[in-house]
Specification:
Keywords: Repeat, Transferase. The protein is α/β, with parallel strands linked by helices. It folds into 2 domains: 140 residues, Oxidized Rhodanese, domain 1; 124 residues, 3-Layer(aba) Sandwich (Oxidized Rhodanese, domain 1), CATH 3.40.250. α8 links the parallel β6 and β7. It starts with 8 loop residues before the first strand and ends in a 10-residue tail after the last helix. The N terminus is likely disordered.
């Protein structure tokens, strides 16, 4: 596995030097009532110029379970004042779990100039870099998506049709993988499916294993070791999944963008959908 030539990560040091660039847009991603990140933390202080995107209420489709439609994404970007030519630097607290999920959404809708801030909010604060409480309101733009990249998304039909040909990475906690619980212990909703367990043949690599204590990502040799210890072999197409698609987007980011695997898809329906599907085989 080889690293992609142009890394999707930017350092805190780099961002500090480029905050005033006209084509750099900084976005903090979290949840208003999330079980980890809250909007109150953003309002109390954030990276200067940073916009806010709520993962649950703005990146989830309000009309059905799943991701936004292309027009919805375009309208969201336009309302936030983001141009389709901007370099969007995403960050969050909590090991960048929400920003990597947002990164997957941006790439799904063809926004190529997208990066994640390595270390996220945690490292920025530990470095003592400036914070601001001003809520920016840039003018609306005429955003146009480059199109939907379906090659990075797996649907339930894709999962069921490739149970014996794809490699599955379960990014959840071991107790979820073993079928002892439906969802994260600190999640606001206790149910993640009608049945607990995992997709047959899936390898459990909890998403947090790819991160360091300072919330930066582990480097390539360490990442290889993490997946090797889980007996994962990248000899087939890879599909990542979790509970509702956020942790699996983090693992997708690691596998595809940091480790350079090309055929990696995120199953955003994840266990909330698969575990409730009639006839879908499971293992515990």
């Amino acid at each position: 596995m080889a690293l992609i030539e142009e890394s999707p990560l930017v350092s805190c040091e780099w961002l500090l030097e480029h905050l005033d660039d006209s084509d750099v847009v900084v976005v903090e991603v979290g949840q208003l009532n999330g079980y980890e990140t809250t909007r109150a933390r953003y309002l109390a202080g954030h990276i200067p110029t940073a916009l806010w995107i709520d993962w649950a209420s703005e990146l989830r489709n309000p009309e059905c379970v799943g991701v936004l439609e292309q027009e919805m994404f375009e309208n969201l970007m336009a309302a936030k004042g983001i141009r389709d030519t901007d370099l969007v630097v995403l960050y969050s607290a909590d090991n960048n779990i929400w920003s990597t999920s947002a990164y997957w959404h941006f790439r799904l809708f063809g926004h190529a100039r997208t990066s994640v801030l390595d270390g996220g909010r945690t490292r920025w604060e530990r470095l003592g870099y400036p914070m601001d409480s001003v809520f920016p309101r840039p003018p609306m733009t005429a955003y146009r998506s480059a199109g939907v990249d379906e090659s990075i998304r797996a649907l339930r039909s894709d999962v069921l049709g490739s149970l014996t040909t794809s490699a599955f990475i379960d990014a959840r906690e071991p107790e979820e993988y073993r079928g002892e619980t439906f969802s994260p212990s600190d999640a606001p909703n206790a149910m993640g499916g009608q049945r607990a367990g995992h997709i047959p043949g899936a390898v459990n690599v909890p998403w947090r294993l790819a991160g360091n204590a300072d919330h930066t990502f582990k480097r390539l040799p360490e990442l290889r070791e993490v997946f090797a210890e889980a007996n994962f072999s990248a000899n087939a197409a890879v599909i990542t999944y979790c509970w509702v698609g956020a942790r699996s987007a983090y693992s997708w980011f690691v596998l595809r963008e940091l480790m350079g695997l090309r055929d990696v898809r995120n199953y955003d329906g994840s266990w909330a959908e698969y575990g409730s599907s009639v006839g879908a085989p499971i293992e515990v």
